[in-house]
Design goal:
This is Cell filamentation protein Fic. This protein has 77 residues and is mainly alpha-helical. It is 71% helix and 0% strand. It has one domain. The chain contains 4 helices and no strands. It is elongated.
Length: 77
Amino acid sequence: MDYQILLQKKALYDQRKDTLPEATVKSYIQAFELEYTHHSTAIEGNTLSLLETKVLLEEGLSVGGKKLREIYEVVNA
């Protein structure tokens, strides 16, 4: 995605976020944090999928067949 388009979308969101229900804003923040964690650990070679990252962070369940290093990277990210 073009950086300028991303900045425009952020500006539009910032203008209107006060009109959104609190639960909606909270879900946007939670989704951002989940995807940020997944992508930043993936850059470092972590093989957990987005769904596995979500289960680990939200449910506290470890994922079988994965290295402890990968799990700790996600939890401590």
